[in-house]
Amino acid sequence: MTKFVGVLTSGGDNPGLNAAIRGLGKAALGCYGMQVIGFRDGFRGLMENRSITLDGKMLSGILTQGGTILGTSRDKPHKMIVGGKEMDMTQAIIDTYQRNHLDVLVCIGGGGTQKNAYRLMQHGLNVITLPKTIDNDVWGTDVTFGFDTALDIATEAIDRLHSTAQSHHRVIVVEIMGHRAGWLALGAGVAGGADVILIPEIPYDPKIVAESIRNRSRSGKSFSIVAVAEGALSKNQRSQMDELEEKLRAAKDKDEKRQVKKVIEEINGMRSSHTMMLAQKLEELTGIESRVTILGHLQRGGTPSSFDRILATKLGTACADYINRGKYGVMLAARGDGVEALPLEEVAGKLKSVPPDHLLLTSARRVGTCLGD
Ligand code: F6P
Question: Quick check: CB of 177 below 6 Å from ligand 1?
Fold first, then answer.
């Protein structure tokens, strides 16, 4: 019997999404005679039943394209803004699934998508997820596609910033994406030889950062590159956040919860101003002129690296095999050279952060990089 497959991309876009859609689509159509439809704009398009047929023509010529041909959004099935109000649209999504006689829904996304897909699975839908994000913070997979491309972009940026920082004898603070995990800032910082690397996992002390810059100056190096992950916090900011998170856990009613959440979201939304404030502080403390470069969405745009194309193709084609075998409720993780299926309930809600004893951190310290602690 022909199997009907639905696929969507959700969360921030990233390089390799089209390669994954193509891998899944071509293998599902060509090897197993399945029918594949794509839903537009993540869970919103699924809720609104906006779809396109993914036939040979649609799947052709997209391997090297950045972004996602399906479009994406950060909408969650159980908390969607509809008509200006936050609503639980899970039932509408189940209706779309049934109306299209789907055998399975493939959700390609990051940490949030794993949780949303798991919720749909608990409502009885067959789901399979493929992990992607430039942040590389999805638990259970060695690596997510998108990360390698973003790593190259951020590394090249640090390389380029070196010559201008050196010429002007400046401190350049470069903000790199990664709101909950520091893989990208750490990787690019090590690859690009940043003098300071600040990541969310290690709260930093601005005075220690300034001291390391002054030490460089004393040794005749009149410039410094500070690679800061957008979610990195100073020790003070971290303890303020810890207090708020404690308050959130202890909140007695929904109203109190909402208020504390709002403050947390406001602080999270101020990430770039944290970076600007850090640069100002470093200028004050070191007396060295400082500048800020925010790489932002540049890191997510454009053509995927060959590594990401290969990984996305492996995951997409493996996904068709799992569908053929009727193995659902799993995330397909990259493990070594292969692909492994992990139960979604094991993955959902977990974060892969940089462990304190990670070799990359040790290596950074050994080459004299300041980690702000
Ligand atoms: O989750 C991937 C990511 O690129 C993060 O690094 C970043 O914090 C976030 O998305 C930015 O999201 P948006 O595109 O919604 O501004």
Answer: yes
